[in-house]
């Protein structure tokens, strides 16, 4: 039936919507009531959760993850080795374990930057029809990249290229959007600037405005939104001119582009956690010392860009860039802690992982606990509004409810999440 009542505690239903001694009643997987206790009669026999002493949040959303990446923290390998040597079924099983870790941390929806032919579209559908337990997955099955662009150079030279691994020129760009839509894409990801791959520089723009505009036009015609990987200022400018829906990373944002993003309503997904992990523990997680140093400037500039965007009124959406051992699944709340450290209130930070993320996904039923909302909720021991760090301790995640179903016992029974030194938010095996 997917019915449940969550009783007591502090309810954060959305920005500035806080209720103490609250009640959340979910029936048939949909929120029927969320507010002060006594506002509705809960039928006899409904499963009940006692949230006394806890904070009740909507299911959280991480809007930038790389799901099918290494989940084995006892065997750290370089990313290109994992991509080149692990089979497709193996990558998908790593992805399922990563998905369980995210769910156990209270993240009931993930926006997935997919890898070609691995099976994330199929996993999304298996979860939705009940064949697998996991968070809701919103998937781009593959990126769009130009020859010698970030997505092309992301793979080492010895990796065989397939048709449509790259697209050059307006017509090829249009066709690859159509191909991804046919595969079942929920959104389109395009590489609009360089990154940190071997043989490239982050300040390099990728694609002309005409090529980016063709991608956006074709995607929007098919009701798909476009996420642009864009670190460099020129990559960001071209992406905005083309009309993309979100800028991913945005490390070298300046005041003018921040103001333009705010004017256009373009979302920013800053992915600060990835850079933070790399600077703190990169050499223990598969990076060389030179690789850590190469990322330092982007790390520092991302902090500055975040402040520029926040002050300009840009809509910021939480995304970690969770990626294997470099930025571990299960520690997603670290991103929110960084937002608070660098100027947001806790209320504002929570909004980035709920209502703001839901707006980016065009899913107003997500990220809220109010009548008609999706029945996703997280019960966290302690007062998250007083200390955002409470959320990062997965031992504090007492209940995870997905579409009205309490998955906590299932996650405790099946999770083999590893204990990682220094990782706040990773569950010991039970």
From TrEMBL:
<dbReference type="InterPro" id="IPR057744">
    <property type="entry name" value="OTAase-like"/>
</dbReference>
<dbReference type="InterPro" id="IPR051781">
    <property type="entry name" value="Metallo-dep_Hydrolase"/>
</dbReference>
<dbReference type="InterPro" id="IPR006680">
    <property type="entry name" value="Amidohydro-rel"/>
</dbReference>
<dbReference type="Pfam" id="PF01979">
    <property type="entry name" value="Amidohydro_1"/>
</dbReference>
<dbReference type="InterPro" id="IPR032466">
    <property type="entry name" value="Metal_Hydrolase"/>
</dbReference>
<protein>
    <submittedName>
        <fullName>Imidazolonepropionase</fullName>
    </submittedName>
</protein>
<feature type="domain" description="Amidohydrolase-related">
    <location>
        <begin position="55"/>
        <end position="405"/>
    </location>
</feature>
<dbReference type="InterPro" id="IPR011059">
    <property type="entry name" value="Metal-dep_hydrolase_composite"/>
</dbReference>
<dbReference type="GO" id="GO:0016810">
    <property type="term" value="F:hydrolase activity, acting on carbon-nitrogen (but not peptide) bonds"/>
</dbReference>
